[in-house]
Amino acid sequence: MLALGAGAAELALGVGLAGPMKHAVAGLLHLGLHPRPERFGPQPVGPAAQRQASALKPVALGQDLPGAARPADLPWNRLLSFDACVQCGKCEAACPAFAAGQPLNPKKLVQDLVSGMAGTGDAHYAGNPYPGKEIGRHAGAPDQAVVPGLIDAETLWSCTTCRACVQACPMLIEHVDLVVDLRRNLTLVGGTVPNKGDEVLAALRETDTQGRHPLAARHHWASDLGLPVIADKRTSPRTEWLLLAGEAGFDLRGQKTLRALVTTLRAAGVVPALLGERETDCGDVARRLGDEAGYQRLARQLIATLQAHPAANLVTADPHLLHALRNEYPVLDAAWAEQLAQGRTRVWHHTELLAELLEGGRLRPKADAADRAPSVTLHDPCYLGRYNGQIEAPRRALKAIGIQVIEMERCGLNARCCGGGGGAPTTDIPGQRRIPDMRMDDARATGAEVVAVACPQCTAMLEGVTGKRPEVLDVAELVARAVETSVEKNA
Ligand code: SF4
Ligand code: SF4
């Protein structure tokens, strides 16, 4: 109660006051009343050990506000967190959209909310502007809509939800929660998602796929691989391994990775089943684009399918799908949370499984695999690294086939985003450069022949970079090449 009172007093009296004590008081209160207290608690153990405090909080549809329209719509402890910002600029330095010259700067975003609560504008903001936007043109008030008076919509749509700002922030401020909350209002109330974002949301509503594909086409790439397919049956007995293909199943490049993964798994005696036309979109993109209603429908649908067709192990090569299954669905559905917590279902990223199979000797690299290996750098996917805390598995898998990764300057939890998350490729807000071009420059600087990836979005973004560049190969493709003899022998 004391902390609640102190927090309310800080918000009521402290906002707008200057001086070092303001941040000290707000910072202490913010840490004590953090909107994600699970960030400080012990991490779960057992099969849920890698679960992260990175899942968005679901909206109680019909009860909660559909996102935030005004600063005053945000929870008070979130507002308090903005007041704790010490303007160190670490989030700005980490932000790929800012670096690309898109109209986003997470430091200014936080300060704009502080101004909005104080009923002022940005005329006195001394830091860097949103690229391409003049300082002094925006103002707001606690009860006034954030967009467009205080912040332009395109600022919010520039975010890739990469969490680099959250990772960098010494005050543990949660910028992505803010962006998504404001997007929810734009999407669910205003219906104003720019460029292809609107089309993708409509396709998801009408077809349960992002590109209006027939559901059965998701697994056409596997038709000659002899995998068991759980198709029309309403329920099926428990499966040992179930592979979720995700959106990559519809994409030629994604299919290449999936085929490499399946042939490699078979070499280790793992034959995964497929859901066939019962696999529907996981809802990741709908959620990042602010369509919380669409996300919840898609999530509940896929959870119901997975409960009707139970599997001991779910494996996916898509970190966005992984994050939904492992971190976001348990917040939405108590039965799913229990299923994971009790270890009845384990969720794997494919690099985790490959690392385990290689280290356990079930997959053996060819004798000359290390000699023939190209020089490799590794691009960490944001939704595997920062969202799931998993930066070791791809490196372990590569090490097991004789590849020592040449690290980029920004790697692991501090890796630069490829530009593919958060629905950003669909909203497509222009900047001065493209984020994947900058990431490819990071890869080029290592001199490596190959940039290894572990996400179909990263593959698509980095392969879209023109000019002389390293080859882009999924970790599964590199492993498949290294164990080729075993594949032939066992397939
Ligand atoms: S999540 Fe990534 S793109 Fe969005 S503001 Fe933070 S650093 Fe920038
Ligand atoms: S990193 Fe955190 S404290 Fe530093 S400017 Fe950004 S929001 Fe403020």
From TrEMBL:
Annotated ranges, domain 4Fe-4S ferredoxin-type: 76-106, 147-181
UniProtKB keywords: 4Fe-4S, Iron, Iron-sulfur, Metal-binding, Oxidoreductase
GO molecular function: 4 iron, 4 sulfur cluster binding; metal ion binding; oxidoreductase activity
InterPro entries associated with the record: 4Fe4S_Fe-S-bd, 4Fe4S_Fe_S_CS, Csal_0991-like_N, Cys_rich_dom, HdrC_iron-sulfur_subunit, Helical_ferredxn
Any GO CC annotation of this UniProt entry: plasma membrane
Identification of the protein by name: 4Fe-4S ferredoxin-type domain-containing protein
